[in-house]
Amino acid sequence: MAEKIDIALAGNPNCGKTTLFNELTGSNGYVGNWPGVTVEKKEAVWKKDADVLFTDLPGIYSLSPYSPEEVVSRDFIISGRPSAIIDLVDVTNIERNLYLTTQILETGRPVVVGLNMCDLLEQRGEKIDSKRLSKMLGVPVVEVSALRSKNLDALVGTAVDSGRANKVAQGVKCFSPEVEDALQTIANTITGSCAPDLLRWYSIKVFERDSAAIEPLNLSKQQLEDMEKVIEAIERDRDDDSESIITSERYEWIATVMDACVVKAPGKLTVSEKIDRVVTNRVLGLPIFIAIMIGVYWVALVAVGTPATDWVNDQLFSDGFFVSSSGQAAFEEADEAWQDAHYTDQISGYIAAAEEAGVDTDGVQDAIDADPQTADDEATITEFEDAAEKAGVVATDVPVTDADGNYLDTEGNVITTLDEDGNPVLAEGQELDVLPTVTAADFATAVDSPEPDQHDYDGFVDSIPNAVTGWLTDAGTSNVVISLVVDGIIGGVGSVLGFIPQIFVLFVMLCFLEDCGYMSRVAFVMDRVFRRFGLSGKSFIPMIVSSGCGVPGVLATKTIENEHDRRMTAMLTTMIPCSAKLPIIALVMGVLAGGSSMWWVAPMFYLMGIAAIIISAVMLKKTKRFAGEPVPFVMELPDYHMPSIKSWALHVWERVAAYVKKAGTIIFAAAVGIWVLSNFGLAGWEGGDGSFGFLQAMDGAPETYMDYSILAGIGGALSFIFMPLGFGNWQATASTISALIAKENLVSTFGVLYGLGDATENSVSMWQGFANMFTIAGTLHVGAMCAFVAFNMLCAPCFAAMGTIRRQMDDPKWFWFAIGFECGFGWVVGLLINQLYELFVFGNFGFWTVVAFVLLALMLFQLFRPMPKWDEKDEHILDNLAEEPVA
Ligand SMILES: Nc1nc2c(ncn2[C@@H]2O[C@H](COP(=O)(O)OP(=O)(O)OP(=O)(O)O)[C@@H](O)[C@H]2O)c(=O)[nH]1
Ligand SMILES: [Mg+2]
């Protein structure tokens, strides 16, 4: 068996290390077209030889680390002593990339330089003489393209050979003779204190006075003082500090390498630069970004998403659907004929007339609707018919309705204006369409003409809940189990799965924007906006990641050097809607508009997230804990490119798969839990005996039996918190709490509470169920609904993201502060929305209106007051400001 070998992938941020790593190992680490994507190291073996282990490292600009993830890379290279290092160099940025290369060559390891993105060279009209470069660097150089899988085996092969032969890179003599002399003197002093391979590395570190790096050498005071003299002499001579001397001499040397090995294109604008002139334009940049986001959400939620999700919710999970068009046509024809005969109107009209005439109509409608009808039902109907006939009931003036139950006028138009009791209000000259007199015989005909049943026609596929109910009933399963499976599991998990089409479409677009390079421009554009509010564009990168999932979003804050900004970004970034919050947004869209006309609602929530972050940041920046200037934001803009279909598809798949996996695990478990809590309880209704049990099967259980469940008890006890926000009912409270486990739970909890899986007569559609929670006295309370969504968007994220924040903060005090702030902020925003809506739409003014205004005034004060001056002595703000590592 061949000897095992471990190879580190090192290089600048965004040079393609993770792309290479994925390609070599078949992993699917996160790739994005902006710097700082990878923040933790990751290991995997080569697809072609399990003895070769690769480590993907966070990108670094130099081996003098500033931010936490840079430390990971430096430590791994210096202390981890990999068998070989592949130093990946982005050829479109070769000059800056070689800076790190000169340092890596000094680490006393076998090194192979991979010139990545060679596919872009030709397009840019550039050429690199890699043979010559290899000679100048003293290590092998291989031209590759990680994205297009070009020459990768040659690269790995060379690295494996160098590693096995332990061909240690010697470093380049890139410094001036005086500095080289000084380094030699230092080397003579410290030789013996370190491994011979690292002598040059440590000599340079001593020269730079990098005290952290040379700590392991344990040099004596005398040694340090001797060397200090040598260093000071050169500093005096050059009138510069030793660290800068090293840096500038490295760059001077790189310039000579560039001259010798690189043929640059004549200075005309590349395509990327031309595009950037527009999209990063001072004036146009932000509007273009907003327009793109609106477009993305519109396509995902309205154009493609809504029809797809409607199909899933209405057909797959509710009514079933046809796979044969002739079967469907036959059914539709029969159904239309049946509707035209107005049987429903005749039945309800006749029953109403009978009731007026004093005939007992109890349970008649139910008996007629029952499917299948029992002997009891048939008896009830016959009894009613006899009684009505005896009483001589004849119904007149029965209004005609269409298939959806709307009243029609004589012209056949729908009458849309209704009074409080739901009776039609007629306009001038309009007349209500009524049926001819309905006699007992007409009634009997209507009852005997059952509504055409889809099941009787060709090519009909039943909805999942109907089919499952059917199987379970046939198998003689008990009602408890049927309810658990159909209402709990199918209703809960199914309602979450119903949003897959939208999630999929959204990610197809977001992943494209990320991978082609546009999102890094947005970070650049947002930097200009953020900077005014004391945040840096660096804080925007985690937000882009958070639009997929908050967990990697919080991790991405590691690239922020300044501790204040890092903490603040970690606690605010989850306010951006993630994929799990998308169904909530989609629900509101569905309720408000059934889609199209309210196209702006969904992007509004995204922009609300950004606005909430900015407002919070401004308020927090004016407190002592977070004060400080934003770090300078220097980021190179990578060239635009067409993402490879493979990596694009992989990205989308990963996120959709994560969503599905969550539905099958956490959401599944939570749905079962919610079902148990909402179906078991005490029979506390009138006439109930107060015993504990499965509510719907208990004697005399009302239709609203869930009001007596355990969940209603818990939700009810906590609902006072949300009363001022307008959604203080137990259902909304319970949903909000369950959403803390995973945000999708909000939707799945509805699914269970409104029995969406249960396709019987009185079940309601998803939109309707959601609207019901906010319907007071027949009117939809839009303010309460928006407050509910706003609170759930902005409050603490799901458990997984909270755990990540906790690890990231590394301090329980900070963690609880973060969670408290998020919940408090979400609550205040919800309060403002609801109270302002009530004031302006309903004209209600009360205690909570006053509270809302006071809180608003406090927020405005904190937002607009001048930046307070802190005593800099007790607050080491400036000390925390790291320098920007980019040269
Ligand atoms: N055109 C082209 N693009 C590439 C190539 N290799 C990688 N990319 C793109 O470069 C971008 C950055 O790739 P990553 O693999 O995330 O870079 P990284 O070095 O891991 O970046 P960090 O994790 O931030 O250090 C992605 O958009 C890749 O698709 C290549 O050979 N050619
Ligand atoms: Mg990476």
Give the overall average pLDDT: 84
Low-pLDDT residue intervals, each spanning 5 or more residues: 759-763, 872-887
Q: Radius of gyration, Cα only, in angstroms?
A: 35 Å
- Report the total helices: 38
**How many E strands?**
14
Strand content: 5-15%
The structural domain count equals 4
Instruction: Specify the biggest β-sheet.
Output: 6 strands, mixed
Strand-pairing-aware structural class: mainly alpha
Spatial strand sequence of the major β-sheet: 2-3-1-4-5-7
Distinct bound molecules: guanosine-5'-triphosphate, magnesium ion
Shape: elongated
Residue share in helices?
Answer: 55-70%
Distance between the termini: 46 Å
Pfam families: FeoB_C, FeoB_Cyto, FeoB_N, Gate
Organism: Tractidigestivibacter scatoligenes
GO molecular function, one term: GTP binding
Subcellular location: Cell inner membrane
Architecture overview:
With 887 residues, the chain is mainly alpha-helical. It folds into four domains: 5-165, Rossmann fold, CATH 3.40.50.300; 177-263, Helix Hairpins (Orthogonal Bundle); 335-398 and 435-461, no CATH class; 503-628 and 649-864, no CATH class. It has 38 helices and 14 strands. A hairpin with a 6-residue loop joins strand 2 (42-45) and strand 3. Helix 26 packs across helix 36, helix 27 packs antiparallel against helix 34 (782-794) and helix 36 (812-842) packs across helix 37. It binds guanosine-5'-triphosphate and magnesium ion (MG). The site of magnesium ion (MG) has 4 residues, from helix 1. Residues 4-165 form the FeoB-type G domain.
